[in-house]
Design goal:
Layout lengths: L4 E3 L3 E7 L8 E6 L2 E3 L3 E6 L5 E10 L6 E10 L4 E12 L4 E5 L6 E3 L3 E9 L6 E6 L2 E3 L3 E4 L5 E9 L8 E7 L7 E6 L1 E3 L17
Parallel strand pairs: 1-8, 10-18
Antiparallel strand pairs: 2-6, 3-4, 3-7, 5-6, 7-8, 9-11, 11-15, 12-13, 12-16, 14-15, 16-17
Length: 209
């Protein structure tokens, strides 16, 4: 028994126990294909008349680990039998980077034009969930693309540029089980637009004769 998910730097504890056997079985741990020493072993008598063997091991999750494979082998040499149980731990880690393409800070957009802006998260396990917000209001209808290899996920929105977008912040938020706080990146748009009307004032209103 032990956890199904973990984060880099965590120390995980696992316990393996045999069912009743006679003679008692011995337990052996194999972590990621390598035999590993248990930190604690014990053999107890069973109410059913045989023996139960229990073993504990600790596993450190390293920087490069994407998963950990923990196997426990129960050997009963008198009966020439070996039973195995394997547990796989998925290592959660945040995306490496959250980038925005399609708009460069400082670019001036023309009112009425169409602009596509894409947010991309590289790696991460699991790949994060991406959301767009325009001045704190969620933007619906984004196009999501996920690499089959699991190397990236992207979210693209189309903006019909309006004068109200001038100075407005478009924020991409990446939510993941691997981080308590979401990753964020944003751009503030600059929009050029003409006046809606022109008024000419004449002074004085009535010319003096």
């Amino acid at each position: 028994s032990g956890p199904d998910t973990a984060k880099v730097g965590q120390t995980l504890n696992f316990e393996c126990a045999t069912s009743n056997s006679n003679p008692a079985s011995t337990l052996q741990w194999v972590i990621d294909g390598k035999a590993t020493k248990a930190i604690h072993n014990r053999t107890d008598t069973s109410e059913e008349g045989g023996w139960v063997t229990i073993s504990n091991v600790t596993v450190m999750v390293g920087q490069l680990d994407k998963s950990k494979t923990i196997s426990c082998y129960a050997n009963n040499f008198a009966l020439s039998e070996t039973k195995a149980e394997t547990h796989i731990v998925t290592v959660l880690y945040p995306p490496d980077e959250l980038s925005i393409t399609g708009y460069k800070q400082g670019d001036i957009l023309v009112e009425g034009s169409l602009r596509r802006i894409k947010c991309t998260a590289l790696s991460g396990n699991p790949l994060p969930e991406l959301e767009w917000f325009a001045a704190d209001k969620k933007v619906e209808g984004a196009t999501i693309e996920k690499a089959e290899s699991g190397t990236f996920v992207s979210s693209e929105i189309s903006i019909k540029v309006d004068r109200s977008d001038n100075g407005k912040s478009y924020q991409c938020k990446a939510k993941s089980e691997a981080t308590e706080e979401p990753f964020r990146n944003s751009v503030a748009l600059k929009v050029s637009f003409p006046p809606t009307r022109v008024r000419v004032e004449v002074e004085p209103e009535s010319p003096i004769e």
